[in-house]
Amino acid sequence: MTHGAPAKKNPANDDEEVVPPPDGGWGWAVVFGSFMIHIIADGFTYTLGIFIVELMWYFDEGSERTSWIASIMVGVTLGSGPIVSSLVNKYGCRTITIVGALIAAFGLGISTLATSVTTLYVTIGLLAGFGFGLIYLPAIVSVTCYFEKKRSFATGIAVCGSGIGTFIFAPLTEALINTYGWRGALLIITAITLNCIIFGALFRPLETARPRRKRTTSEVAVEMVEKEKLMAINEESANSPTHPSGSDPVRRSVHDVPVNGEMHRISQQEKSTNNTLTVNAAVGDASIARMARSQPQLLQVPTADVMAGEESRNRKGSTAGSRSHHGGSGVMYRKDALYSGSMVNIPEYRADPKGFSGSVMRIPPDDGCSGTTDSNEKVKVCGLIPCSKASYDAYKEMMDFGLLKDPVFILFTVSNFCTSIGFNVPYVYIKDKALELGIPSANASFLLSVVGIANTIGRVILGYISDKPWLNRLWLYNGALTVCGLATAFSAFCDDYVSLIVYCASFGFTIGAYVGLTSVILVDLLGLEKLTNAFGLLLLFQGIASLVGPPIAGRLKDNLGSYDAGFYLAGSMIAISGLMLFFIPCLQRWTKSKATKAADISTKTALAPIH
To answer: Per the database record, which ranges form the Major facilitator superfamily (MFS) profile domain (predicted)?
Structure first.
């Protein structure tokens, strides 16, 4: 197993060090597990439209009532995101994925006993939807926890399972229904869903922070030599009022440490301390330093750490550092937990790649004088629902509605809401639309396979292009959505199989930008610090929009006798969502200008003379 860079100091706790992602090793097993989960979960979700057609015929229901099955499932899957994040923060990706697979399989399994569409609202919509929600978020977060430098590549492999799953499940579902009926087909897919338990078990947790490594006597001795040199230089500088050019005493030190009166004071204090060894204090005995100078071999021999004071500090650090295992996984404390793009897109990473890992951790500060954090402490959400502090922290982070005061985020949220209204309409109705044109059922189902493979290609190509410094990612995102919307709206004019294939390929390719670039665009617009909050709110609004999109299109079909109006609506919403985002640069300039004027007024008010 490969190892990451040296651990970084955790600013929240001096006794802890942040463990950087290993960027490989077991992480590739995690990528494989996430890839397979995407194949199964998204494969079923995006081909549910094949079941919808069968259920409309079996229960003699209209398009609107039957489409609520898919809408509720997708809406619950997305809308449960903030709740799932709180559970992941407490119990970890592996546990939540396994529980989610069990719930989803249970919901699908008992659906085979349903005698009405209303029953399927509960079994597939609510139960399976929530189960897939418990699977969806950990499948992404688990990969980002293991990768930093190679994150874009790793997450790209994982999410490609979505398109490949759609490609595989479309003909598979069609064949199963033709052979065993919809009940038998659903039962077999239930068994397939249970495989998510095995793949979820691959999500082995990583410790997010650990007790700081105790330094050896040789390391402490080296530090003492350094400090003696600094003291001598400092005393020399104190006796010399000026320094000729090029003779700056600081340059004679081994490390670029500022040498001034404060350093002299600290050095004098250290010389007066007792000789007990500690982790973060120098040895108070100059003889060890002299020994280190006279016997260089001492520096090569690691010695045991000795000190009683250190043990108490280790107990404190161990308690805090083990929070990720005993008090909660803590994975959602990472600011970049939901970021799936290339790390070079993040200014903080470009500025200091080595120190990035330590800067993204938001481990809560120790509470109380004991220096420990009891993440099992119970708090109440809305004053009613008891939950652990780890769960509450993640939920609160995602559901901070204060971000809705940001005009840029409001516009982006409205855009995502519009996109989500139209997003699922082609997945749910494209087969039935093809059947109305007289296309055979097997060929009609294959249209979803075309969407899936085009989506995979689109994610790879658009993701690759978006990392290029010469390209404006926002314009790429906006353009892809606009083209996708126009293609969906004009699909009403597709009256043969070939034209439908062209449309499905266009839709799958361009919609890949919406799914793959959302987190990257959020970081570009709002910064990494606000990503978790922004993504959580987006999931909530996406869930609401997904809930109403297909039923509206279904109602239009039931009333007008054609899917054309529904596809017009879906395409218009997606196209509008892309076009409105072209105004973001203007909105950013206006917001910046407004903030500058407010700051100027505040400054003038503060400097105004008081009469």
So the answer is: 408-611
Angle at 236 between CA 235 and CA 241, to 5 degrees: 110
Nearest residue to 553 via CA among 415, 424, 419, 434: 424
Q: Among residues 515, 412, 500, 498, which one has the least CA distance to residue 458?
A: 515
**56/126 same-domain check:** yes
The tens digit of pLDDT for each residue in 380-400 reads: 655 556 666 666 677 777 778
Asked whether the CA dihedral 390, 393, 84, 338 is positive or negative, the reply is negative
Side-chain-side CA neighbours of 229 within 13 Å: the count stands at: 18
Q: Which two tokens stand for residue 558?
A: 């039931």
Rounded distance between C-alpha atoms, residue 475 and residue 420, angstroms: 19
8 Å CB contact between 130 and 81 = no
pLDDT computed for residue 341 by the predictor: 73
Dihedral sign, CA of 370, 371, 376, 379?
Answer: positive
Let me know if residue 315 belongs to a domain: no
162: left (phi over 0), alpha (psi -120 to 50) or beta: alpha
| CATH number of the domain that residue 483 is part of | 1.20.1250.20
Q: Determine what percent of the chain is predicted with pLDDT higher than 90.
A: 48
SS3 content of the chain, % helix, strand, coil (to 5): 70, 5, 25
Token pair listed for 100? 């989610």
Q: Is residue 388 part of a domain?
A: no
Count of domains in the chain? 3
Mark whether 488 and 360 lie in a shared domain: no
Q: Do 561 and 413 share a domain, yes or no?
A: yes
Token pair listed for 286: 């100059």
**Same domain (yes/no): 172, 275:** no
Is 466 in the same domain as 587?
A: yes
How far apart are alpha carbons 482 and 282 in whole angstroms?
Answer: 63
Strand partners, 17: 9, 210
Residue 369 and residue 424 in one domain: no
What is the C-alpha to C-alpha distance for residues 586 and 50, in angstroms, rounded to an integer? 43
Domain extent at residue 15: 1-210+328-373
Cα–Cα distances in angstroms (integers) from residue 95 to residues 205, 511, 559, 603, in the given order: 10, 31, 46, 53
Asked if 162 and 54 count as a contact pair (C-beta separation under 8 A), the reply is no
* Pairwise CA distance, residues 113 & 342, whole Å: 46
**Is residue 385 domain-resident?**
no
Q: How far apart are CA 402 and CA 405, in angstroms?
A: 6
Please state, for a pLDDT cut of 70, what percent of the chain lies above it: 68
Residues 369 and 419 in one domain: no
Give the pLDDT confidence of 323-340 residue by residue, as tens digits: 444 345 577 777 777 787
A 10 A CB-CB count for 557 gives 23
Asked if 191 and 62 sit in the same domain, the reply is yes
